[in-house]
Specification:
The complex is a heterodimer of chains A (655) and B (422). By secondary structure, chain A is mainly α. Chain A has 26 helices and 2 strands. The longest helix of chain A has 31 residues. Chain A starts with a helix and ends in an 11-residue tail after the last helix. Chain B is α/β, with parallel strands linked by helices and 422 residues long. In chain B, the strands form 2 sheets. In chain B, strands 6, 7, 8, 9, 10, 11, 12, 13 and 14 form a 9-stranded mixed sheet that branches. In chain B, helix 2 crosses helix 12 and helix 3 packs parallel to helix 4. The two termini of chain B are 19 Å apart. The chains are: A mainly alpha (655), B alpha/beta (422). The interface between A and B is large, with 66 and 71 residues.
Amino acid sequence: VTDLLGYVIRGIPFGCAFALVAIGLVLTYKTSGVFNLAFAAQAFASAAVYYQLRVESDWPNVPAFIAAVFVAAPLLGYVLERFLFRRLRTAPAVSKLVVSLGLLVALPEIVKLWIGDDALYGVPTIWPNQFGIYHWGDYAIDGNEAATVIATVVSVIVLTLLFRYTGIGLRMRAVVESPRMTELAGVNADRVSSFSWMLSSLFAGLAGVLIAPLFSQLAANNFTILLVAAIAAAAFARLTSIPMALLGGVLLGILQGILAGYLPLNSVLANGLRPSLPFVLLFLLLLFWPGLRQKREITDPLAGVDPPPAGLAAIGRGPGLTVATRALAVLIVVLGLALALFSLDAFWLLIVTRAVILAIVFLSITVITGIAGQISLCQATFAAVGGFATAQLVHVWSLPVLLTTLIGALLAAAVGALLAVPALRLGGIYLALATFAFALMFDSILVPLGWVSGGDVPLDVPRPEFARGDHAFFLLAVVMLAIAGTVVLLVRRGTTGKYLDAVRGSEDAAASIGINSSSQRVLAFALSAGIAGLGGGLLAMLDTQANYAANFSPFLGLVWLVLVVTVSARTVEGAVVAGLALVLVPELLKEVGISLEWQYILFGLGALTYARHPEGILEAQQRQLTAFVQRRLDRRHRAATSDEGTGPEGRPVAA
Amino acid sequence: MRVGRAFTAVAVAALAVGLVAPAAGAAEFPAVDQPGVTPTEIKVGGVVTASNDPTGANLDTAYDGVNAYFKYVNSKGGVYGRKLKLDSKRDDGLANNRQEVQGLLTQDDVFAVLPVAVQLFTGAKLLADKGIPTYGWDINEEWGSEHHNPGPSNFFTNVGDYICFTCAVGSPQAWLPKKLDRHRIGNLAFNVSQSTACAEGLEKSLKKFKTGKIVFQDKSLTFGATDYSAQVAQMKDKGVDLVITCLDGNGATALAREMKKQGLDAPQILPNAYRPELIEKNADVLDGSYLFTTFAPLETKPAPKGMKLYKKWIKKSGGEITENSLMGWINADEFVTGLKAAGPNFTQQKVVDATNKLTKYTAGGLIPPLNWTTAHQNQIECSAVLKVVDGKFKPVFGKKGKPFICFPDNLKKMPKNPQVSS
């Protein structure tokens, strides 16, 4: 009992660190409707400001704290709201999630442009006595832990009072639910929204300054690691209750201590469960915690008074332009292939081959996000399943590598289907979070196992005998892309695509005409995972090893998603362009002498355009260009036919 | 021995040729038809993980070391009448190592590849297959390990290529329990492969040499964990008096802080913490800890000749003094030593062959004597031991001018006082 009590008491300060982040996530969601994964990046930014002022500029503690938490953080929140999230106020939560992902990728790199790349050690605490230790019977607490516990408890009390007993608290919640209705009541929704973001950003700043000293080094990924663990506590609070977020965080901290104390050390259970505890809990909470299973998000009850959002500007093309466009596409492909095969050296051929294979992986995002309308944050994991299966089957059973790649794709498809079955009841951000939890569980439970990943050293993967050479392997990748692209096109245009369109529009309406939305979603997940698995196997072949850290980590998967939705998640061309962008942008930056960090800034900021163009930059540009060309053709045709007395053809048509 | 001496004579002669080169000029030397070699220059290129490195290890400062060394050599006229030039500095951004290595091979027209200081060495096979002289920092299995045995003959590092991470070998980790008379060991590792391999190696070594007993071991820690309260409580209960970790700087510091909080009085042995700022900023909890370096630490007194040159030229070239820039310097010295030994008609293969004949290579006293005739498959187990005192590194257990303690490859019994070496 004494031991148990010890684990519980010692776990509380660490639980408060989780709670602080969870409260921040809940606060942002409550006041802005955004599940803000960029919270970690905002916390990092404030911690960087605090570090620079305290350590580099030698400011005293209190002014540095005030500047970092009460000035810089709210200012950042204001900027984000004013220029970004205000436009997204009535957008679906998934759109907001994607934009916050973009910020998570870009913001730390922007901060690093200021603080530099060098490791920054020794972030001071806000406690006057720094890490001074205070004893309480058999237990002890240090200054930073004391500050964290006090700040967390005070924050909960203040925020609870704010929401329960003040007008601004009520108005903040009202603006999230219905800005239009709130405005009808005479409330300035913009101002309230700005205040909400400044408050939540202040909280991110507070968390950043308090959490940074836990680590010896100031680094953005420390905050991200803590954030993904704290999501479970936020889910425990159903993303709405701040006191419950505190409880969830503290319970998580205590549970980690108890498991470390009582599970047999180095047992399979300990090795599997302890590192993955937050993700297992998150997954289970999402599936079984009442209140987190709603399929639809809360929508503005007055949304109907607005005209429906403008449809994507589909442009009808005249037959001449259609033929010309297709001919141009064929020409580009043929020229591209000829260039790759006959002009590129081994370096550029490797780059282009990687782009082709990444395009295959990205087609999986086209299926699940572009066609099925779901956000999956575990596509890199499906690719890993394919890559590992390819490698293991070659090693263990000595099967031909092409066969093992196909088996790997099927295995990934099966895993996708299995994941989809329990996740069916989830929608929107909850499904996204469940897939992220799955990716993190895979990362911490399965990847360390030798029979999965090969263990200490990545398993070698040969290329097929007929594709040993770089040119032959490039052609193999192109053929695979052509097959995968054709499958995706057929699915999109076929019955399944139509069904998924219907389900995406309205599940109830789709069910009323006999469409089984569950089976369609399972099918979409399986197909998407299978394509990702195929790409994973090919990536392993390209690198001649199944290297998880280099190719399949969950955070790499987030960058992939951000990039694909930015370019175009609905088209095959979008996947191809995204694949090219991922490998060519770094080379372009190198050519002009710009640091590679800028690629993350560009990709991240690119996601911000998702707010304006949910169809993606590529599709938007294509439509504008097509419309422009068609207008010019029409004008010319009119001029020609008016002389002959006949009317124009091929008028732009709104879809 | 005879071969070694004969080789030394050749090397000295070659060195002399190199040193008189400024007067002679490139025209005095035969034309060389090799990649990256012109009548006036020998170009090399390197690859490091500069961006997107989760460890924040400043690996790009390896370039500083190479640049400084080349500046030093060029100030003496270069080698065989040619100036040395670090012509290509690639950043693999963590995930693109193979791609960048391919670029070095096909785009950059370089004679040798240095420095290689990367977190993931996925392009190793390309370099090994090509046979190009390659010099780098031995933190990847691909340089040579129980899984890659022997290491490629064209790969050269500061410690000899081969490191068996999971073997029972004589090492300071296995020796210190005996030296410090602390035998109840606590061991912590993350649940990632490199970390668990380190724990496994320690476990086997302690078992073989019977210098200590692991009474508490946790290999299930999450990378990035900050809560070690349960582990420290258990170590305290079990009477642990020496903690040997396989953690990064974050983990080691958080653990030390928790140990101080709970009053666990046991020194910590850190696997990889030669970062002065990390130690200085966390002196309150890391004082009394031990760590090792495979090179002469910057604090070595008297400083070996190589160290004096390094400090002088890194300052002159505007570089940064770090562990990685020192690695870059050693890599460059290793390359130039092999190049000079290969003779004026040098080729990539001749440089590799000549380097593989070196038997007592020390980079001017910066590293323990390396025997490249065996270093690709036999582990060199020499390290300098440092103790953290008042937030500074203090070399311990070595002797004046001999900072390293060494353990033979086939050690059967752990000696009380291992051999010391310059």
